[in-house]
TrEMBL record:
Keyword Nucleotide-binding: yes
Organism: Mycolicibacterium sarraceniae
ATPase AAA-type core domain: residues covered: 1-136
Protein name per Swiss-Prot or TrEMBL: ESX-2 secretion system protein EccA2
Superkingdom of origin organism: Bacteria
Pfam families per the UniProt record, alphabetical: AAA, AAA_lid_6
Lineage, broadest ranks: Bacteria, Bacillati, Actinomycetota, Actinomycetes, Mycobacteriales
């Protein structure tokens, strides 16, 4: 199975949920997924990736292997040819999917374009990975809700003006197109952006309230300690976007 879409849209969370569902249905024996990367499959020289991949799969029988940026399994030479070390891993993975088809599950994830290109490196890949779940970028309203829900167990409240400030920033990010053609909200990684901004805003709030406490001699309320104001969110968004070099007019 393939989970495709921009970063921060819930692909890993979905894979974790599928692990529990598949275990409940008896498709796999263990609900926990095993997250892997290229280094888990590939050795340092030609001939080493096949055994290493086989060993990894043997240890993972009864579980779901999950690999984000699935296409990183095979690197490309300057002339576009796939590297042999990665191809060995792909070949062994395809063998395992056939031999252990009743006790092994693999989920790959990443950007749809890159995943589709990767499937062409071996004719067997497209046949094996013929089920695809597509994830879309979050809307501004959805990102605000993610931030609100992320803040709830942290006893953080986003006041209405701050919610609108975050929504306005997300609308700008949706409209911005990066040099590589990506939307700004995808560059900022969608749900991760909402969580990152909330954490930044919390630190700004804490500094603001501490300064208020020093100057007003203890007149800080519980509401002050819990509530994010518009300026907290605006500054947090500006700082996060500056780090990614995404221009924003706040």
């Amino acid at each position: 199975m393939l989970l495709v879409g921009p970063p921060g849209t819930g692909k890993t969370t979905t894979a974790e949920a599928l692990g529990k569902i598949y275990a409940g249905l008896g498709i796999v024996r263990h609900p926990e997924i095993v997250e892997v990367k290229r280094a888990d499959f590939c050795g340092e020289h030609i001939g080493s990736s096949g055994p290493k991949t086989n060993e990894l799969i043997s240890r993972s029988l009864g579980r779901i292997l999950f690999m984000d940026e699935f296409y990183s399994l095979v690197e490309r030479h300057h002339d576009g040819r796939p590297d042999m070390i990665g191809m060995e891993a792909v070949n062994q993975l395809l063998v395992a999917l056939e031999v252990h088809r009743f006790d092994f599950c693999f989920i790959g994830a990443g950007y749809e374009k890159e995943v589709d290109e990767f499937l062409t490196v071996n004719p067997g890949l497209a046949g094996r990975f013929n089920r695809k779940l597509r994830f879309e970028s979050y809307s501004p309203d959805e990102l605000v809700q993610i931030a609100i829900r992320y803040g709830q167990p942290r006893a953080t409240v986003i006041d209405p003006a701050a919610q609108e400030a975050l929504n306005a920033a997300c609308r700008q990010l949706r409209a911005y197109i990066a040099p590589d053609g990506s939307h700004g909200i995808d560059v900022m990684q969608n749900g991760r952006f909402a969580r990152n901004v909330l954490e930044r805003a919390e630190r700004l709030r804490d500094s603001r309230v501490a300064a208020q406490n020093r100057t007003s001699r203890g007149s800080v309320t519980i509401e002050d300690l819990e509530t994010l104001r518009a300026q907290d969110l605006i500054t947090a968004v500006a700082n996060a976007c500056a780090e990614k070099r995404v221009p924003l007019d706040l």
